[in-house]
Amino acid sequence: MTAQETQNNVEKALDEIRPFLMSDGGNIKLISIEDAIVKVQLEGACTGCSVNQMTLKNGVEATIKKYAPQIEQVVNID
Question: Mean pLDDT, 10 residues at a time, over the chain (78 residues)?
């Protein structure tokens, strides 16, 4: 998979996740993909949410890996 295909797949995954985050007043933005690590930024209500790390791992990372299995980790950049 090319870098562009990987980025497109990650964006598709984020598009699937966004409605759930937005319904709680949050959002997510792709910052970069370096090696097999996706860097994102949680926005809005997600920044102060006490469960944002659980959301990041169980929701965001799992969905991204479904679209782009070569991704090893998703990290939030403050």
Answer: 94 94 90 95 78 76 95 91
∠ CA 24-25-30, nearest 5°, is 105
The burial of 55, by beta-carbon neighbours within 10 Å (0-12 exposed, 13-18 middle, 19 or more buried), is given as buried
Side-chain-side CA neighbours of 34 within 13 Å: the count stands at 5
* Token pair for 46: 């997600």
Which pair of tokens denotes residue 13? 């995954």
